[in-house]
């Protein structure tokens, strides 16, 4: 490190680059640090049994005395979900918009961390001093209320973190993005040092539609309905929920809120003033049948086909209070998070089978994205006119394409940096470059265990999931003479009743292998185990081309 | 069954309705039967470890003496892949287009069934007599060469099975769909009794693009390339391959064929006259480095991100002969089969990381679908003008929407039938109705085992995949006194080194539970086992909220 600490700004992404999810960055200047967001990711298909993935905090823990605070941009799980896990280790204040902190509060309570946490609300348009850092909170639009971009001021110029954003010129809550502030930063002295911007929708040309576009669709959907309306969306999308509330009011329907996260989100948003719903509008989901169908709308979870969510239960026919019928009009007002397509498809199939009308993204205009498309990304670049550019929030292909887009918009290639998790990126007056690499990656959360499941465990789960396990139990005496067994027990392998012959023959192979050992006077456990394992493995593979896990249990008495 | 066998036609789908894949139908008239297609499906996410899914053949096997033949429409796996499994049980001739039978031949050889099989080629535009049935083979367009719709003539009128199709007015091989024949059937006496039509793309408005649209893209891609061109597509898409061949010839490049299925398909297509490639065009993939990069194009497998396919190996950096470099232009000329999105995304990320330029469906016009969109589906309906309509090739939502589309185009609702697998659908002069239900469903193929993996095995694999297994081994004497153990062995559960305390405490719980049993004089195995299992299950769940499989192994000596 040949640049003095106060002549350069360093930013280290600990998540959210080269992946979708668990957004987290550490910004460092003159030996003080600020954490920007700390979110979770959903497990990949090969992370079997894992509930959540959080960033590796090692770098933060090692530097905890340097950290002045955590700043959050909005309340989505991929930006705040890992904060409780972080606050179990470090004690620093968290700054953020009111709605984000409202949602965070609920999670901190679940983790029994609320008492020792300090949450400080900062409104959009305001600045806050955190140690040496002045941080501006700048209104942008997104699929959750109260999203802010950040400008962290440093002597080398402000670092702008665009967060997840789009530019919605007709937002539902009339809170337009603060184009003026972004422009002011862009024309300031010193100008913007670096822009970190959202790559999620970089593959999409043009502009992302306004949230208000949904209003027209909802109007048509509500107007044409003879029966109940059931609408599923993300529980955090308060603008969408507001529009459903408004449509229900306009069409003189009662509205039931279904699903735990929808109830929580609805309540939090109402309490904090982000949602405006008349008292007499809301009914309990258990009371829907007390009203004529055409007077009922239901707002529900399950837009991703999650197995336990309310809409999924309705589709499956095991919802306690709602039986889907053919006069129902059901709207899935969301797009599929990659990996969920099949679950959503199955929910739609089941709802159709129950005779309901189903409207979803592929066949009706019932969703707009919360992320900027190409023209908005260029607008963000040109408003803030940064010296350096780092694409964030995307898999590698998104970051790469966003870097290319920036270059088309005039950003020099050498001022663009495509980051990997753990890169310590240094921005000086002359250049951007990687000066170091710190530990970073996935920490797996499985139940209450954090980090106790790793590659070996996952590899075993993979093997078990593909072909199950065969356990061979036998007892030998000190001379290696078989006293009982070998007994073969299988789980997840084959139907035993259909495969008696296979198991009998397998048992014989193990017996033969053991006899050979006895003849040769082999009594070492490790050799016996290996012999049993290999004889079985080869037999099973040759016979039915499967590779179950094989576990010999040899008892010596 | 109150309609005489010769006064109605019966059709029983054994796959391909309410699902994508394993298309198969049995058509029956006057006690004779014809099988139409017999394909495989890919396993669902919850069918862990399964390689393939084939239709339940029970109904066919029970009626095998009535079957006059198998008719196939085209050579895709979801239409022919289960035929080898069927021919292991029954011996009937297979009729089909030359290319489909060419591909089938390869598979029958692998199953050692070629000698006892009879394959009879029928050209598009021709008819064949199979027992009492006259079957017309009618040219349609699709993403594999030589696809035919079928008209099976019966005294009540022809039954038209549209197969997978689109109407391509500018096909690459100049083999246009036989609109005249379809129209002739539609205007005949008796008119078409029933139409079975492809619902895959029913969600798409308008017309599906022509395969020739790709030519323009390929021209642009080949023209602008300074280095190698690497193109991945489905190996059965001979029209696409022909266009790549043509582009390579036009641009004076050599073409290497990479990946086993691509080589096989290329060879078969060439041999059977479906592919026209000059001899001096093709080079061995090992020889690519002998030519300047700008003279090399590579046609490869891996368009779905399949782990072992050639392009995936290149992306991962473990291909034997091809190292991807930044002058390479790589084209993924395919769309994702649902469920493969993440694999393809990962391949693209890795290729970008190697510096290559990557073009794929989301950002470039490099693929068109092989299935009809809404306007073509209506055209098929109006050309054939059937009395009854059965949507096929789709999940329930597709079938439902296709039925609605047909009704918009004038088909009476009561003449539309949305089928489930196993429905015996009877078409008489007066009505279409379900008269019976036969056994049908998924038979799982896992390695060489067919049908030996069922729900219990899959549920075990699911449990094992989510939290692994804990095995408790102990030895007791006749009085239930513990002689050795309990020893706890885990796989796929936790890192033992990180969780020594947990395992120690768990062992103690088991010991305590056993002591309680001993005190109470309990020596029954089943009770002991349940006690061990429950004590461990409760402890583990309370402690870390996981539910591993728990398997007590109690040896009595």
Automatic annotation (TrEMBL), chains A, B:
Its EC number is 3.1.-.-. It comes from Halarsenatibacter silvermanii. CDD domains: RNaseJ_MBL-fold. The active site is at 198 (proton donor), 371 (proton acceptor). This is Ribonuclease J. Pfam families: Lactamase_B (PF00753), RMMBL (PF07521), RNase_J_b_CASP (PF22505), RNase_J_C (PF17770). GO terms for biological process: rRNA processing. Keywords: Calcium, Cytoplasm, Endonuclease, Exonuclease, Hydrolase, Metal-binding, Nuclease, RNA-binding, rRNA processing, Zinc. It is found in: Cytoplasm. Substrate binds at residues 235-237, 367-371. Ca(2+) binds at residues 49, 51, 446. Residues 21-218 form the Metallo-beta-lactamase domain.
